[in-house]
Design a protein that fits this description.
The chain has about 350 residues and is of the alpha+beta class. It folds into two domains: about 140 residues, no CATH class; about 160 residues, Heat Shock Protein 90. Helices cover about 65% and strands about 15% of the residues. The protein contains ten helices and seven strands.
């Protein structure tokens, strides 16, 4: 079905467009002296509306002969031929309409009036159909452009989702590598603690499988995962590792799953692990008007040896934020007065 006919609102707007064209045709006929103003309006306005429906066929003609497939020359031939044919059909409709209203109103010289009006009607119809063809081609080009834009956005979304899945997949082996190293270190000094750590690790991984497959989870669930991870590390470090987590008023804010876990892992691996007395890993969330700010800070040893890590954790967080939120989110890290702080900010 034609898009205009599929909606009553579009149809009404389309008819409204043809009403002033009918008035214009009536003015042409009256100024030529073919009819008086009243008779010209009675003849021209209904004819204009009827021709509007006839011009709907231009949509099918343009659909059957797109420019990119048949070429400009064939499009021009099709447009001129269709316009000539439509104008001829409109003359037949006009002849019938004049015969009908002339008989009912007992207008004299109907045939002479038709012969006088025929050139104007034919030229008017020819030009209007060409205009309808041009509008149809423009609408088709716009639809193609919108379709290409939509497909481009769909491909962009699919690519971004694939990137997010790839980034998320990096977390598990990175985390497991460090966790297995911790368990290996414990097996020689405290086998019971190593076993307890294995059980906590299994529980943590089971929960990450359930939540990690989702695009967003509440911040409260993300912080619960971080707390489980840090409880695993507390088996290894004991009282050297203290944890403070404050969700503020942002517990229900949706965030990407496993976003904060690499930061908590870095806080332990590159901070607490190098301090003889350990320290506190603090995680605080602050809900603002249009954004969520989460800070992860931990004490560090200024004289600690250069880390052997690859910086994968923080880089992963930044890349995930960029993929999910673009330039509206960021992760900033700084060290000041023996405290290392990572600040993550993302839009609500």
């Amino acid at each position: 079905m034609h898009p205009i006919l599929a909606s009553p609102g579009r149809l009404a707007a389309y008819i409204a467009i043809w009403l002033p064209l009918g008035i214009l045709l009536a003015a042409l006929l009256a100024l030529q002296g073919v009819f008086g103003w009243t008779r010209a309006a009675v003849v021209a306005v209904p004819l204009s509306i009827s021709y509007g429906f006839l011009c709907l066929s231009a949509w099918y003609v343009t659909g059957g002969s797109p420019v990119e497939r048949v070429g400009a020359a064939r499009v021009a031939i099709a447009a001129i031929g269709s316009s000539l044919l439509s104008a001829a059909v409109w003359l037949l409709i006009a002849r019938g309409w004049l015969a009908l209203i002339g008989g009912l109103a007992q207008w004299p010289d109907i045939n002479a009036s038709f012969r006088a009006a025929a050139p104007t009607l034919f030229g008017f119809g020819f030009l209007l159909y060409l205009l309808a063809m041009a509008v149809s081609y423009l609408a088709a080009a716009f639809a193609v452009s919108r379709g290409a834009e939509r497909r481009g956005l769909e491909l962009q979304v699919l690519a971004r989702e694939a990137e997010l899945r790839a980034l998320r997949a990096q977390i598990d082996p990175h985390f497991l590598f460090n966790s297995l190293q911790s368990i290996s270190a414990l097996t020689t000094v405290d086998s019971a603690a190593a076993r307890r750590m294995c059980l906590l690790l299994a529980d943590f991984l089971r929960e990450t499988l359930a939540l990690g497959a989702r695009a967003r989870i509440p911040l409260s669930a993300e912080l619960a995962l971080v707390r489980k991870f840090l409880s695993i590390e507390q088996v290894r470090f004991g009282p050297r590792l203290q944890v403070e987590i404050d969700p503020g008023e942002a517990s229900d804010v949706p965030v990407p799953p496993l976003l904060l876990q690499p930061l908590a892992e870095n806080a332990v691996t590159h901070g607490i692990a190098h301090l003889l007395d350990g320290g506190v890993v603090r995680i605080r969330a602050e809900r603002r008007t249009a954004s969520l700010a989460v800070t992860v800070d931990n004490p560090v040893d200024a004289d600690r040896p250069a880390g052997r890590g690859t910086g994968l954790g923080l880089r992963n967080v930044r890349e995930r934020l960029a993929s999910a939120y673009g330039a509206d989110a960021f992760a900033h890290a700084e060290e000041h007065d023996g405290t290392y702080t990572v600040r993550v900010e993302l839009p609500l």
